[in-house]
């Protein structure tokens, strides 16, 4: 899709969302013409705020872009929550009106009064505040996977995964310092990043490389390209990751020891063919545990049984409820561990940072720690069949 067409579609949808929210809060503005005008102008400004952020960032106005990003994207999260709430109110009003029109004896109770509207606004603000707090509290999810690729006497292998941090204007030193501290405490054998580590213009992120360098697992640090590495500029994204100590796997495989092979592919934005992806995995099973890094939580039918564990991210599990129902349409395996028929498992991280609104509702950020253990005497882990 042409970029201008895509932008027009996005702005149109965002405008419709604002229109419904304006309709929803109208009872609070009724009788106050200046308030209606101010609310309308503010919404018009916020509709174009994301575009303005990118324009300011491209022109090097970093501080202005950062301030507008926090305001504009925080507003975006609140508007999404308000849109969902007032959409329900609108459906209720429509059904109520149809019933009362057909049966005159029915007395309508409207949710369009100042009282119900105030309740909705307060609930939206409360959920939004909760979302800000939830986005700051990174959880450590521990997953134990039993594999017959590890002999009984082998020590467990500890792999930490981060994904979708989106280091940029909003997620910066504080966010990364929290992530690094948690990783240091986990002390994994291997660290992998499954895409979207960076976001937007990243020339101002050089200082963050030093933080990444404080993590030095015995088996190294490996990363793959996500779509936002492409948006930010592929060359500079790879340079940042390499300065941070990551080995960027671009459609290649590495044997890390006598039992573990890690394979990584670029995001689909780089037009990796199915044959190329399958070719990377074929002939690598044998006695080695095959760890497959792929940004998006999808897999090829031809790749069934060619890897032991695929690690992905991308979808954020929707990030803000109920958007997870939308992302699930495209990525059914958008969260957690899934057992694949034919062998192998896929794990999709909810993501470690945020994109757009600096909030998460019903989808807390995570760092995932996998413990790969010998299958002998180990209870199988729970997963979803796919």
Helices and strands, with pairings:
Blueprint lengths: L2 H27 L3 H15 L1 H10 L3 H41 L11 H23 L2 E9 L9 E6 L10 H14 L3 E4 L14 H6 L7 E3 L3 H6 L1 H10 L3 E2 L3 E4 L4 E5 L9 H8 L7 E5 L15 E4 L11 H7 L5 E4 L5 E4 L17 E9 L9 E2 L1
Helix pairs in contact: 1-2, 1-4, 1-5, 3-4, 4-5
Give me the count of strands: 13
Corresponding CATH superfamily of the largest domain: Metallo-dependent phosphatases
* Radius of gyration of CA atoms, rounded to a whole number: 24 Å
Mean pLDDT: 91
In the residues, how many domains can be counted?
2
Number of helices: 11
Distance between the termini: 31 Å
Q: Note the beta-strand portion.
A: 15-25%
Helical proportion, percent range:
40-55%
Shape: globular
Structural class based on helices, strands and sheet pairing: alpha/beta
Largest sheet report: 7 strands, mixed
By CATH, the topology of the largest domain is: Purple Acid Phosphatase, chain A, domain 2
Q: Unreliable segments (pLDDT under 50, ≥5 consecutive)? A: none
- Identify the CATH class of the largest domain: Alpha Beta
CATH structural architecture of the largest domain:
4-Layer Sandwich
């Amino acid at each position: 899709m042409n970029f201008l067409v895509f932008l027009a579609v996005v702005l149109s949808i965002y405008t419709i969302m604002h229109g419904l929210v304006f309709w929803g809060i109208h009872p609070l503005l009724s009788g106050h013409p200046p308030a209606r005008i101010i609310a309308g102008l503010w919404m018009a400004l916020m509709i174009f705020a994301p575009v303005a952020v990118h324009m300011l960032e491209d022109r090097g106005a970093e501080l202005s872009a950062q301030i507008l990003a926090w305001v504009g994207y925080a507003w975006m999260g609140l508007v999404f929550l308000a849109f969902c709430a007032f959409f329900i109110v609108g459906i209720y009003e429509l059904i109520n009106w149809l019933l009362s029109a057909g049966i005159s004896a029915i007395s309508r109770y409207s949710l369009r009064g100042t009282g119900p509207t105030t309740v909705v606004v307060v609930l939206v603000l409360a959920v939004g505040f909760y979302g800000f707090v939830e986005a700051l509290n990174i959880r450590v999810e521990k997953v134990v996977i039993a594999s017959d690729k590890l002999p009984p006497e082998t020590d467990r292998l500890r792999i930490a995964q981060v994904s979708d941090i989106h280091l940029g204007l909003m997620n910066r030193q504080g966010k990364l310092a929290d992530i690094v501290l948690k990783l240091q405490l986990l002390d994994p054998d291997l660290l992998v990043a499954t895409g979207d580590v960076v976001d937007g213009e990243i020339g101002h992120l050089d200082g963050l490389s030093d933080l990444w360098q404080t993590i030095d697992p015995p088996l190294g640090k490996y990363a793959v390209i996500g779509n936002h590495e492409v948006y930010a500029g592929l060359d500079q994204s790879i340079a940042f990751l390499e300065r941070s100590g990551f080995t960027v796997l671009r459609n290649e495989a590495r044997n890390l020891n006598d039992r573990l092979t890690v394979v990584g592919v670029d995001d689909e934005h780089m037009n990796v063919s199915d044959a190329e992806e399958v070719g990377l995995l074929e002939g690598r099973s044998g006695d080695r545990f095959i760890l497959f890094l792929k940004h998006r939580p999808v897999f090829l039918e031809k790749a069934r049984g060619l890897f032991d564990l695929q690690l992905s991210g991308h979808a954020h599990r929707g990030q803000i409820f109920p958007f997870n129902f939308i992302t699930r349409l495209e990525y059914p395996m958008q969260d957690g561990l899934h057992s694949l028929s034919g062998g192998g498992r896929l794990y999709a991280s909810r993501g470690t940072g945020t994109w757009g609104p600096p909030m998460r509702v019903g989808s807390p950020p995570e760092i995932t720690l996998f413990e790969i253990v010998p299958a002998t005497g180990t209870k199988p882990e729970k997963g979803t069949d796919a």
